């Protein structure tokens, strides 16, 4: 790969913006195309973070005050922000399609634009019948909604389709209108009916029935938020104290809540199937019911061997678990399968038990072993090894959270001050953190590959390491041509970017491919390095090398000084 700043390197082709036919794409012509007819250069560059395609965007163009660029495709149009009819421009973050929106039009006060398609209509916001406009964020379809109509006080519009009906909010029978946020279907609901005190409407279909809320047998009405099916539920029935209704189907049974054997009723929120559960049974102290199937077994919670019952929230399978067994102090139960083993928590070698939350497999882990101070267990497989945490060479142990593979890591070695281990594979190398050339070590969190990085080298001030591959180059951050280095977080490829060159003010680098283009800032020609003055660096770049040797860096500096001195003598 030829360096993008090298002498003779092929400059990547940058397609011109959609609204800028005056920007040619050839390499020679691009040198002359970066100023508007008045000679004003580029002030701000917009670069896409995904493709790192950076166009030379004219930000000082008489018609462009602010440029909106899409973060995905980096397509940036010349948007007229100072046009007499445009005060503020709304651009879609996905397609960056920006229309000339009339924001000062006598009928337009505020413009609502969809963030997805950026389709913006001229919406009449000052119309005598329109006070506030509600626009859908997805399709940006906005209707002229009569907000001052004598029958309309407040308008509810669906955020998805933005279909808004003329809803009678002052109707003698309507006090409050509930509208579905999805379809915006709103019915005339009688909220002042003698039998209706409070209306529950489904947020999805907005189907609202006339529910008798003052019926002698109805104290509180539970309505499903999905289908809004509400039954006349007897809440004052002698056997019903509290009614549990499923939020999905709103099927509510007459549940005996005052039954001599029932103290508390557990109802599934999905199917609302509630069984008569004996909560006062001599063997039942607390009942655990699954929130999905609401299957509740008669669980012996007062059994001499059972102190606490762990029930799976999915299948509600509860076993008789011996919680007072001399070898069991604390029981760990998997929340998925509720499989609980008799775990020896008081064993002389066991201080703390680590159980996997998925399979609930718990091993007898030696936590008091003379070589074990702290045990790291994987949360997925719960495989725990006897890890020597007190070994003379081990101060801190890094264990992978996935495989729980832990190595004996030398944390007190004279060359090791701090050990960084990968959270995935827990591969930790002996990293020299005190080496005279190493001040700080950057280790990749995925592969934990750590190189001896020279952080105090005269040419290295700051090292940028990729978090994925941990490939770290010796980057010259103090070079006269390098002020700031932009490194890609994915591939960690870092180019020597000229940030102080008279033609380069700011460099935009893609975070994915770390391709950095020399962006013109102060003059109308691209940044090029003379072949005569920088033979060494040009030769190195032409070979596709990313890094300059010390000899080449010296020649670069010497060449620049000679070139500068020659200009000053002239």
Structure report:
α2 crosses α3. The chain has 3 helices and 2 strands; from the N terminus they run αββαα. 34% of the residues are buried. The protein has a two-stranded antiparallel sheet with strand order 1-2. The two termini are 37 Å apart. It has 570 residues and is largely without helices or strands.
How would you name the oligomeric state of the polypeptide chains in this document?
single chain
Number of strands: 2
Mean pLDDT: 36
Biggest sheet layout: 2 strands, antiparallel
Number of helices: 3
Please indicate the percent range of residues in DSSP E strands (runs of 2 or more).
under 5%
- The SS-based structural class is little secondary structure
> How far is it from the N-terminal to the C-terminal residue, by CA?
37 Å
The outline comes out as flat
Poorly predicted regions: 1-565
Helicity level: under 10%
Strand order of the largest sheet: 1-2
| SSE series | HEEHH
Write down the Rg: 35 Å
Region (Disordered): 1-44
